[in-house]
Amino acid sequence: GFFRRSIQKNMVYTCHRDKVCVINKVTRNRCQSCRLQKCFDVGMSKELVRNDRTKKKKEEKRQAEVEIYVLSADTEQMIAQVCRAHQDTFPSLCQLGKYTTSNSSEHRVSLDVNLWDKFSELSTKCIIKTVEFAKHLPGFTTLTIA
């Protein structure tokens, strides 16, 4: 669907990471530009995308609804800074460890305590990372508490 929509709508995507994004099932929604490029790299062809039967109707409707958004240089820079802050703060969300449990009833009490300890540890890490991310956002450190 993504490839077909991109071709039929003549979408132009921009990569904010030098066109070297890793595209897989988990990360495919992070960079549309690199995702589309990977489609071409694996041999998908835009010439083979079928035209929509109701393309004219959709095109007329789209012409009536089209609004062109042009981002200013400041806005582009702000977006890049926020993306960079997020990538620096959360390099891999997959680094969270697994917590295994036992079904034995004799371990249930110690399990509950250990589970809450792990939950507390992960919650603390999440809060610290969220604050760290926010501190990298433009203007955040200059906000006043009201």
TrEMBL record:
DNA-binding recorded as keyword: yes
Domain (Nuclear receptor): residue spans on this chain: 1-51
Coiled coil start-end: none
Example GO molecular function: nuclear receptor activity
One of the record's GO cellular component terms: nucleus
Keywords, comma-separated and alphabetical: DNA-binding, Metal-binding, Nucleus, Receptor, Transcription, Transcription regulation, Zinc, Zinc-finger
Cross-referenced SMART domains: ZnF_C4
NR LBD domain mapped to chain residues: 74-146
Quaternary state and interactors: Heterodimer; with an rxr molecule. Binds DNA preferentially as a rar/rxr heterodimer.
Name this polypeptide is given: Retinoic acid receptor alpha 2
Record organism: Solea senegalensis (Senegalese sole)
Name of the coding gene: SseRARA2
